[in-house]
Amino acid sequence: MEPYIKDILSSEYEGKTVILKGFINSIRKGKNNVFLILRDPTGLLQCVSNSQEEPFQEASRVTRESSVEVEGSIRKDERAIGGYELHLKRIKIIGLSEPFPLKKGHSKVFLFDNRHLWLRSPRVTAIMKIRSTVFEAIHTFFISNGFYEIQSPSFVGGSVEGGSTLFEVDYFGKKAYLTQSWQLYAEAMVDSLWKIYTVAPSFRAERSKTWRHLTEFWHAEAEMAFVDNTGIMDVEEKLIKSIVKAVLDKNSGELDLLKRDRKILENTVNKPFLRMKYEEIIDLANKNGLKLEYGADLGSDEERVITSKLDVPVFSINYPTKLKPFYHKPDPNDPSHVLCNDLLAPEGYGEIIGAGQRVDDKDTLIKRIKEDGLNVKDYEWYIDLRRYGAIPHSGFGLGVDRLVMWICKLPHIMYAVPFPRTMRRLLP
Ligand code: 4AD
Ligand code: MG
Q1: Whose CA is closest to atom 1 on ligand 1?
Q2: CB neighbours of residue 263 within 10 Å
């Protein structure tokens, strides 16, 4: 393997001749020199050619975003990015670029219209590297803690998270939907495997145009047998800590490039998360200037206010039953509330996990399905799980794109996704 730019930025390579491939990030032409900034997945490197030298003519012909192969010797230069530069001996143009449409100062819409090209920018590349670490850390956490990875279908016959965000598909003349969550299937699979997880896309026909809603998002979900609402919170907390730690360990350069302040990420790894009952969360919101009543639902705007001054994530626990879907277990000591938890990220980001303990009693489940206005017939197989050996069990769903948005402190969830899908965006 030929080296990457990051590898050759060391005294070990000084004076040596290397061959590198990459894209031309920018070009500066002097009277006697041409400076080409080469870019690969690991960084930038200044390549220089003098007008007296052989590669000068070809180097002068190169355009921004052309792909090239360069050969040259490495020398120390304090003024160059990374502290080293490459003195060109040879340059081969692999693909000469037409005038590149992206320049500084474009609107967000224009940039997302050109997402296929914008992905090359160092900033977007840094976000995608962090995203990769997040996915890797999720798998590592679950596998190393004895979970089985298992999948559920994407075509489903009914809703989990309410009918208003279902995507309808024509399934050979019948109505089918794209899944909103693996949860109901997980509750069947958990009976045999006891500790399970999946990482897969979920779909929501979100009409609300907020900074945190996609129509297709990546969902890391887990389900555990014989675990209650408190037990599942402990697992969520450990998962988030291990993901954030992985990013801090592995993506220091990327966090620097994004100018991401580390303090709150470090707190997330080192400090216990806050745990507050729903009513305490409402009180906190009202202390911060909102005027919410007990029973009010919390959306993007409310959670922004609630979490903007926090310096560590907070669990918001035991919501009123009427705010949550049918599958949440009512608290035996107070059935007007359910045994659930939402994990809210600090710095204004709000909900990144939805979680809780599941109804394990058949009659309560049927009652709750009816109260949600759903057809009991569509859920017979799910009710069976309470007929034939019910167990206490709990689970959660982590919105991975939201987590990446927060870790990178991005202004909108679209920036966290390679090709985001929203109500208004299907291309590219
Ligand atoms: O809170 P939600 O709706 O919970 C469930 O789907 C449960 N069935 C999960 C489970 O217990 N297995 O969604 C879980 C998380 C949210 O906290 C949020 O982070 C993310 O999924 N999410 C979205 N992310 C981006 N765009 C959307 N439209 C999202 N909807 C939910
Ligand atoms: Mg939720």
Answers
A1: 354
A2: 9
Q: Which tokens sit at 31?
A: 């009277």
Query: Does ligand 1 come within 6 angstroms of the Cβ of 213?
Result: yes
Residue range(s) defining the domain that contains residue 46:
5-95
Ligand 1 atom closest to the CA of 413, numbered from 1: 25
Which of 95, 120, 154 terminates a domain? The answer is 95
Distance 398 CA to ligand 2 centre (A): 9
For residues 64 and 164, membership in a common domain is answered with no
pLDDT in tens, 399-421: 999 999 999 999 999 999 999 99
Shortest-distance Cα residue to atom 28 of ligand 1:
213
CA distance 137 to 146: 14
Ligand with an atom nearest the CA of residue 343:
1
Which ligand ends up closest to the CA of 162? 1
Instruction: Show Cβ contacts of residue 280 under 8 Å, excluding neighbours closer than 6 positions.
Output: none
Q: Convert the pLDDT of each residue in 196-234 to its tens digit.
A: 999 999 999 998 789 999 999 999 999 999 999 999 999
Specify the ligand 1 atom closest to the Cα of 182. 12
Residues with CB under 5 A from ligand 2 (ion): 354
pTM of the predicted structure, to 2 decimals? 0.97
DSSP codes of every residue in 303-363: HHHHHTT-SS-EEEE--BGGGS-TTBPEETTEEEEESEEEEEETTTTEEEEEEEEBP--HH
Whether 161 lines ligand 1, by a CB cut-off of 6 Å, is yes
My answer on whether 174 and 311 are in the same domain is: yes
257/163: higher pLDDT = 257
| Model pLDDT, residue 397 | 98
CB 368 within 8 A of CB 298: no
Q: What's the pLDDT score for residue 130?
A: 99
Q: Exposed/middle/buried for 103, CB within 10 Å: 0-12, 13-18, 19+?
A: exposed
